[in-house]
Amino acid sequence: MSYQTVHVPLGDRAYDVRIGEGLVAEAGAHIAPLLGKKKKVFVLTDETVAGLHLEALRAGLASAGIDMVALALPAGESTKGWPQFTRAVEWLLAEKCERRDIVVAFGGGVIGDLAGFAASVLRRGVRFVQIPTTLLAQVDSSVGGKTGINAPQGKNLIGAFHQPSLVLADIAILGTLTERDFLAGYGEVQKYGLLGDEGFFEWLEANGPKLAAGDLGLRAEAVRHSVQMKADIVVRDETEQGDRALLNLGHTFCHALEAATGYSDRLLHGEGVAIGCALAFELSARLGLCSQEAPSRVREHLKAMGMKCDLKDIPGDLPSAEALVDLMAQDKKVLDGQLRFILARGIGSAFVTADVPREAVLAVLRDGL
Ligand code: GLY
Question: Per-residue pLDDT for 331 more than 70?
């Protein structure tokens, strides 16, 4: 077994994120130490991932004598609501998933969030293992314990903090993603450089195109570095009382754009994060917090990666700047009615602030539309 480990030291809820090629095939050996006498796990996945990889997971578990039962939910964001959540919880109960058993979340962010939330409430909390199959899930949603589903009022408004017991990020599995999905995940990778590590951003400027083209060693290093940065932040601020909000760089703009495009194929979450990061840097420059070169550099890198970086890159019409700002008011980062933004003093130096004039946000949006 050859893999790298990022440890998330959260006391009695500490866990490893293991990153390497072929971890699905070795899943049984990694999960076996978490199991008691009952050598069986309960897998929640989606139909796309099941079609591509479920038999490989079954074989990987069987090689360590572990049995599995699986429920494949429809792929897509609309699964992340009460109906499929209820279905998943009732299936786990029907399959007799007990207090000491392990739920396995095998899929992207939708499955990880839903399965983690199901595990958090089932019998008042059972353990779960994340096996993220998208770049976005490997570098962001599978680590840190945010779980949940969407409400009609907004994304991720129903949920719980529930840390996984283990995360297995199989780098080889990223090879089955479409280029668009891979690059959407990269939106979260470049975010780490922008929020807290200029050296990492420089590394991405040099290596991003090669890792997008398929270099597995570079992919593993990008995932490892991103996960290490996320782990460091989560350990400082598990429940987002402060620093963890830095991980939301670009997300205030992104959530408004996702709502405006109906959470559809017009804009994937990671694409919205990338555009949102470019807008956050533009706003920071206009407020005199960073130089004008910083937003230009962000946009240049996204363009070099073949990614969307401007509002105009989103297909179809967008609502007015005023309507987009109104959509931001639904964001979970609203505190005492004040919108909080993640702004930056330069690449790698982001900070959280509520001190942003509405007019400045409107001006950035109006000029971009
Ligand atoms: N995805 C942001 C966080 O985990 O805090």
Answer: no
| Region 5-30 average pLDDT | 98
248 is catalytic: yes
Separation between Cα atoms, residue 198 and residue 14, nearest integer Å: 28
What amino acid occupies position 61? L
Nearest Cα neighbor of 158 from 185, 102, 105, 120 is 120
What is the number of structural domains in the chain? 2
Residue 160, both tokens: 């719980």
- 8 Å CB contact between 2 and 171: no
Rounded to an integer, what distance in angstroms lies between the CA atom of residue 196 and that of residue 295? Answer: 15
Q: Where in the sequence is the domain holding 193, given as residue range(s)? A: 179-368
Identify the residue whose C-alpha is closest to ligand 1 atom 3. Answer: 247
155 a known binding residue? Answer: yes
CB 277 within 8 A of CB 194: yes
User: 114: which residues sit within 8 A by CB, 6+ positions away?
Assistant: 44, 73, 79, 80, 84, 85, 88, 105, 147, 149
Q: Is 176 annotated as a binding residue?
A: no
Confidence of residue 337 (pLDDT cuts 50, 70, 90): low
Query: Is pLDDT at 286 greater than 60 in this prediction?
Result: yes
Give the bridge partners for 170, in sequence order.
20
Which is the closest atom of ligand 1 to the Cα of 140?
A: 1
Q: How many of the other CB atoms lie within 10 Å of CB of 291?
A: 14
Residue 186 neighbours by CB under 8 Å, 6+ apart: 135, 208, 212, 270, 274, 305, 307
Same-domain status, 30 and 105 = yes
Question: What's the CATH code of the domain at 244?
Answer: 1.20.1090.10
The continuous run of DSSP H or E covering 355 comes out as none
Residue 7 appears among annotated catalytic residues: no
Would you give the end-to-end CA distance of the chain in angstroms? 50
Residues 156 and 195 in one domain: no
pLDDT digits (tens, 9 = 90+) for 339-367: 789 999 999 999 999 889 999 999 999 99
User: Left, alpha or beta for 316 (phi > 0: left; psi -120 to 50: alpha)?
Assistant: left
